[in-house]
């Protein structure tokens, strides 16, 4: 039943030693460059190295009208062309992986395939990518391996093939349960695909999966939104994400709509949609653990939490951003630029050589803005330890009036967090207040 | 040369590259005197105007003028006269002191350059080099080259060697007091008129100034090589409008080098030499410009009218009564050259460790301490600010920095005034006086850019007079200090007389503009069949905002204007208060005409609703006269301000946005529970005009 490589061994009896795809041998046999040692040598690894990896798969059937991610629409290209684009991009990714340092002794704990539409990628290529990662960094036995999957792009067969390669979590971009909204967004799937996709998920029973919705869409009424939320709950996903639509510059939506103006819901209505999602989902047993994320117990997305706890992570592919050795490095958004990037890596020229590590101040700002997205909140004691007493005082001073108004709470004396939903709704306002206060701490008062 | 001077003004004005344009376009800078108002020469207004120019022009200074002398490579000897030759003394009868009157863009700088080249004072390449050096210096060290006079040696057709002193009038001829002092230092002038355009309002005013000073005026029709040139029409226009004999007008093109020789000959032939007042005269010299230099103190530019000045002389300034010992004496040729002595008829500069330009004001008379002149030269006045505003540091800790910075600016800007002001809303700051809005903007910008003080500037106001019921009169420079209606008997506001020259097609729109600004029609006359002069009396408050911009936009740039203050008049004025969340925001208060209160209130509350960010509760914004609300708006509460997604690649982007949001917040002032951004205070500037 299983074919090809299983690079990881976190399922009982899953250890196989099938032949390695050629590209993996490249990574193995080419001594690693850029001063990082062979992945096999345990002595070269450091506990501060990333335990997560993000891979960007930019291909989509077509680009949604609100989307501003780095996406390559395949359109009606002939099948062979599509296949060759997939495999050459996979080779590029493998090459980048093979030339990237930073192996944690315990291997990767989370892997996330985002896009684009990763579920368009033929399963054997995804398997090669996982093998490449395993080779270079190791993949822990209990790793969370997620991929985004859009309705209409996967079948029972492809799902089980992905799962055989190790994928154990899917994030399904349903977006809406009304045909009219799917069309208006320029989604490539219809309502029928939505129902089919949910059926396939329930059948395949991955370890976890997420159902993703978008609120604040043009013409979206409160009734539509309630209907979508109820349908989502009925599908019993372990995880639900609800994203409030952001009108991004240079997207067709930006030309069509102005935030706050009809046919987009007014701000007050969009806020009510957010409140509704929070109350309905929490009633249904989901924990609202991040601004846009809800999970049944034990089903928080481990990978995304890496971002929100400022932990380091690898990233590969067009436009992907990594965080390693205190540096946030964003890869080129366009294919050609990315090719040159990988080329440079292969020639032992670090394309991000000129980037400096984030300052202490920036690390503090990251910690604030990322942790305040979560229900776990900001741990003031940790902040004080890392950034000094003045940092803690500044944060406390900045949130005082928000505490007074009920937007921020102290679940424990050393922890502050935004209240749900009212605090989350004005997250930027609160966080920018903290930024303003923290920005005024003189350098010498900051911990070194 | 003068071109670099011209450009240096641009940069100095810190309005970055727009400086000159703005300067040129600004109404305050266009005030000037008119024939029917010549009696007013030297009134407070004119002095304000000129001081503004002086201070603005001087901006940062001039040591560069002394530096470039070294920076520029010496040109080949045969092409340019050696320095000692250029500054060699000639008897007064071979000296010619002159200036150039021209409208902006009519070619003054180019003509000055040509005169310098033709007389071998500089050469083409050198001029270029100096210009570039100036730019580099400007960029690298933030200092500016100033050149306001040039001494040339010219061998005329009669075989005689003449010393020609070109005295620059301010970069733009819009500063009539300074212009009048520069002209007073001359015996003649070139009137340069674009042969395709004709006479403009400022030119007209300056020609009257020249006539008042009994100068010999040589008309020059410039740009005759352009296809649109109509020298005959313009010649007639000058004759009809100015009453000048144009039979000997010189046809020229400064750009093409046409007519330059004729101009030099005319200067020598037609402009009279200075009076030979060297011997047996008490020494007197007229200051026509001054500028602060951090190393030498103030550099004073002057024309000796009687007697002589020597290095080491103890001199006295007759109006300020200050005494100084001359450290250095020199001429500009056009680079500074030190000399030991300057006698009557000559033009030069001196340094005497003078601490601030206010101690050596334009128009003052220099005399010798040991043998003082009995009478100062006529025409001296002091600058008085006409527009006031409050300047407060955004960060209260910067109050001392602000005080120090204003003090430094004042060293080179005798028209700038400031005194401490305390506001319940804004804390400690200064009430500052300026010549006009441009002056104010420049000072604000320099404080922020050069001295790194983050400012909140309150609504600018002219100086009102409030007559109290008890019979006293109060001078009001700050709307919040206007006494309540109950104790007021009346309010008076400054008026000015405005003359507009326009092609006749735009008379309608310009009359509408003047009427909308509460103007009283005085007169309208045809200058020629195509051009008209319009005269209105207007409240100064309506002029100092953006009258000039409007004039230009409604006349497609063709109209020009001049105005001067004509005293105070009673008007039905009220104080318009702004309340945000039911609290009066003092710095937003304005004095407006009762009829305009609704319009202004409506525009202002609407604008505030746009610039104040939504907050966590609903905020009423009202404009009120006393307790009566005339306009109101509601700022609805913020509903949501959250970014839905934040993953790997979004983190940097989101952080940037949050930093920007935080930076905006640091610029806010708390009024009661409401955060009001700085922009709210400056946006008020645009309101009056939008409403009108």
UniProtKB/TrEMBL annotation, chain A:
Taxonomic superkingdom: Eukaryota
Any GO molecular function: 4 iron, 4 sulfur cluster binding
Gene Ontology CC, one term = cytoplasm
Q: Which residues form the Radical SAM core domain?
A: 45-287
GO terms (BP aspect): porphyrin-containing compound biosynthetic process
Cited SMART domains: Elp3 (SM00729)
Q: Which Pfam families match?
A: HemN_C (PF06969), Radical_SAM (PF04055)
What protein family is recorded? Belongs to the anaerobic coproporphyrinogen-III oxidase family. HemW subfamily.
Protein purpose:
May be a heme chaperone, appears to bind heme. Homologous bacterial proteins do not have oxygen-independent coproporphyrinogen-III oxidase activity. Binds 1 [4Fe-4S] cluster. The cluster is coordinated with 3 cysteines and an exchangeable S-adenosyl-L-methionine.
Q: What is this protein called?
A: Radical S-adenosyl methionine domain-containing protein 1, mitochondrial
From TrEMBL, chain B:
**The name this protein goes by in its record:** Translation factor GUF1 homolog, chloroplastic
Alphabetical GO biological process terms: positive regulation of translation; translation
**Species per Swiss-Prot/TrEMBL record:** Apatococcus lobatus
Q: Which residues form the Tr-type G domain?
A: 93-275
**UniProt-listed Enzyme Commission number(s):** 3.6.5.n1
GO molecular function annotation: GTP binding; GTPase activity; ribosome binding
Its UniProt entry gives the catalysed reaction(s) as: GTP + H2O = GDP + phosphate + H(+)
Q: Which Pfam families match?
A: EFG_C (PF00679), GTP_EFTU (PF00009), GTP_EFTU_D2 (PF03144), LepA_C (PF06421)
Which PROSITE patterns has this protein been placed in?
G_TR_1, G_TR_2
Question: What subcellular compartments does it reside in?
Answer: Plastid, Chloroplast
Instruction: State where GTP binds.
Output: 102-109, 168-172, 222-225
Q: Which InterPro entries match?
A: EF-4, EFG_III/V, EFG_V-like, EFTu-like_2, G_TR_CS, GUFP, LepA_C_sf, LepA_CTD
CC terms in the record's Gene Ontology section: chloroplast
This chain's function reads: Promotes chloroplast protein synthesis. May act as a fidelity factor of the translation reaction, by catalyzing a one-codon backward translocation of tRNAs on improperly translocated ribosomes.
The family assignment reads: Belongs to the TRAFAC class translation factor GTPase superfamily. Classic translation factor GTPase family. LepA subfamily.
């Amino acid at each position: 039943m299983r074919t090809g490589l299983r690079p990881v061994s976190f399922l009982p009896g899953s250890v196989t030693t099938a032949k390695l795809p050629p590209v993996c041998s490249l990574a193995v046999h080419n001594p690693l460059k850029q001063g990082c040692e062979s992945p096999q040598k345990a002595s070269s690894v450091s506990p501060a190295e990333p335990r997560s990896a993000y891979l960007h798969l930019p291909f989509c059937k077509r680009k949604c009208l609100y989307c501003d991610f780095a996406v390559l629409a395949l359109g009606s290209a002939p099948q062979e062309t599509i296949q060759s684009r997939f495999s050459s991009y996979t080779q590029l990714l493998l090459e980048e992986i093979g030339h990237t340092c930073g192996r944690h002794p315990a291997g990767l704990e989370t892997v996330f395939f985002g896009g684009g539409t990763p579920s368009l990628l033929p399963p054997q290529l995804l398997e090669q990518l996982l093998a490449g990662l395993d080779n270079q960094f190791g993949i822990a036995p209990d790793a969370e391996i997620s991929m985004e999957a859009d309705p209409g792009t996967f079948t029972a067969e492809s799902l089980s093939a992905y799962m055989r390669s190790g994928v154990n979590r899917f994030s399904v971009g349903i977006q809406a349960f009304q045909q009219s909204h799917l069309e208006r967004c320029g989604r490539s799937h219809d309502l029928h695909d939505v129902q089919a996709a949910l059926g396939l998920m329930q059948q395949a029973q991955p370890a976890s999966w997420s159902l993703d919705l978008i609120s604040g869409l043009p013409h979206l009424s409160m009734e539509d939104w309630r209907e979508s939320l109820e349908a989502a709950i009925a599908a019993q996903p372990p995880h639900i994400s609800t994203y409030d639509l952001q009108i991004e510059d240079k997207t067709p939506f930006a030309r069509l709509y102005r935030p706050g103006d009809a046919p987009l819901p007014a701000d007050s209505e969009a806020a009510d949609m957010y409140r509704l999602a929070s109350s309905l989902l929490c009633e249904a047993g989901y924990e609202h653990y991040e601004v846009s994320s809800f999970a049944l117990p034990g089903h928080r997305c481990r990978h995304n939490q890496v971002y929100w706890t400022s932990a380091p992570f690898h990233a590969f592919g067009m436009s992907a951003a990594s965080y390693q050795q205190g540096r946030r490095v964003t890869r080129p958004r366009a294919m050609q630029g990315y090719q040159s990037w990988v080329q440079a890596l292969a020639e032992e020229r670090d394309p991000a050589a000129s980037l400096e590590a984030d300052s202490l101040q920036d690390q503090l700002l990251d910690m604030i803005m990322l942790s305040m997205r979560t229900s776990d909140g900001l741990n003031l004691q940790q902040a004080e330890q890392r950034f000094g007493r003045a940092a803690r005082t500044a944060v406390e001073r900045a949130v005082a009036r928000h505490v007074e108004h009920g937007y921020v709470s102290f679940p424990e004396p050393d922890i502050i967090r935004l209240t749900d939903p009212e605090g989350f709704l004005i997250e930027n306002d609160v966080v920018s207040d903290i930024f303003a206060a923290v920005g005024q701490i003189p350098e010498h008062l900051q911990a070194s | 040369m003068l071109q670099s001077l011209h450009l240096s003004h641009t940069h100095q004005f810190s309005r970055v590259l727009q400086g000159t344009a703005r300067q040129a376009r600004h109404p305050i800078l266009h005030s000037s005197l008119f024939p029917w108002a010549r009696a007013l020469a030297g009134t407070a207004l004119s002095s304000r105007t000129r001081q503004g120019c002086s201070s603005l022009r001087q901006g940062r200074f001039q040591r560069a003028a002394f530096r470039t002398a070294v920076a520029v490579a010496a040109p080949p000897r045969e092409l340019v006269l050696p320095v000692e030759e250029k500054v060699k003394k000639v008897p007064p009868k071979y000296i010619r002191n002159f200036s150039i009157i021209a409208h902006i863009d009519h070619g003054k700088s180019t003509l000055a350059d040509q005169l310098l080249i033709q007389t071998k004072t500089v050469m083409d390449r050198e001029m270029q080099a100096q210009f570039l050096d100036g730019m580099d210096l400007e960029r690298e060290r933030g200092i500016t080259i100033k050149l306001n006079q040039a001494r040339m040696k010219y061998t005329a057709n009669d075989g005689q060697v003449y010393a020609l002193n070109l005295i620059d009038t301010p970069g733009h001829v819009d500063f009539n007091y300074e212009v009048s002092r520069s002209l007073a230092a001359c015996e003649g002038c070139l009137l340069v008129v674009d042969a395709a355009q004709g006479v403009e309002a400022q030119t007209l005013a300056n020609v009257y100034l020249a006539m008042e000073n009994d100068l010999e005026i040589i008309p020059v029709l410039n740009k005759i090589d352009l296809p649109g040139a109509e020298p005959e029409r313009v010649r007639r226009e000058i004759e009809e409008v100015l009453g000048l004999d144009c039979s000997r007008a010189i046809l020229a093109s400064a750009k093409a080098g046409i007519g330059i020789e004729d101009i030099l000959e005319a200067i020598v032939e037609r402009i009279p030499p200075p009076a030979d007042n060297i011997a047996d005269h008490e020494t007197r010299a007229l200051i026509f410009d001054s500028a602060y230099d951090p190393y030498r103190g103030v550099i004073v530019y002057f024309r000796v009218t009687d007697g002589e000045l020597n290095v080491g002389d103890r001199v006295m300034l007759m109006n300020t009564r200050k005494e100084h010992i001359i450290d250095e004496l020199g001429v500009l040729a056009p680079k500074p050259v030190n000399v030991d002595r300057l006698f009557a008829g000559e033009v030069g500069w001196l340094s005497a460790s003078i601490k601030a330009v206010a101690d050596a004001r334009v128009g003052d008379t220099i005399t010798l301490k040991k043998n003082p002149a009995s009478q100062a030269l006529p025409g001296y006045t002091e600058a008085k600010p006409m527009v006031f505003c409050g300047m407060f540091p955004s960060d209260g800790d910067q109050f001392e920095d602000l005080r120090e910075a204003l003090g430094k600016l004042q060293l080179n800007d005798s028209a700038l005034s400031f005194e401490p002001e305390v506001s319940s809303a804004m804390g400690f700051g200064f009430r500052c006086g300026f010549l006009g809005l441009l002056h104010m903007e420049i000072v604000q910008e320099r404080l922020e850019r050069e001295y790194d003080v983050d400012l909140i500037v309150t609504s600018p106001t002219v100086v009102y007079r409030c007559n109290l019921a008890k019979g006293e009169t109060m001078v009001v420079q700050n709307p919040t200090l206007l006494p309540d209606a109950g104790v007021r008997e009346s309010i008076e506001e400054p008026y000015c007389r405005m003359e507009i020259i326009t092609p006749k097609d735009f008379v309608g729109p310009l009359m509408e503009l003047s009427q909308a600004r509460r103007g009283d029609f005085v007169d309208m006359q045809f200058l020629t069949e195509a051009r008209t002069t319009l005269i209105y009396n207007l409240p100064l408050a309506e002029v100092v905002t953006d009258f000039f911009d409007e004039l230009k936009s409604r006349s497609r740039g063709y109209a020009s204007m001049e105005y001067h203050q004509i005293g105070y008049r009673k008007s039905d004025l009220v104080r318009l208060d702004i309340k945000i969340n039911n609290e009066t925001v003092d710095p937003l208060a304005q004095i407006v005409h009762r009829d305009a209160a609704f319009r202004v209130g409506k525009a202002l509350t609407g604008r505030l609703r746009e610039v104040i960010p939504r907050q966590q509760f609903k905020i009423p914004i009202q404009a009120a006269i006393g307790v009566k609300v005339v306009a109101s708006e509601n700022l609805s509460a913020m509903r949501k301000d959250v970014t839905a997604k934040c993953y790997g690649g979004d983190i940097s982007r989101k952080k940037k946005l949050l930093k920007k949001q935080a930076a905006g917040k640091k610029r806010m002032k708390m009024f009661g529970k409401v955060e009001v951004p700085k922009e709210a205070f400056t946006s008020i500037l645009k309101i009056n005009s939008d409403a009108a």
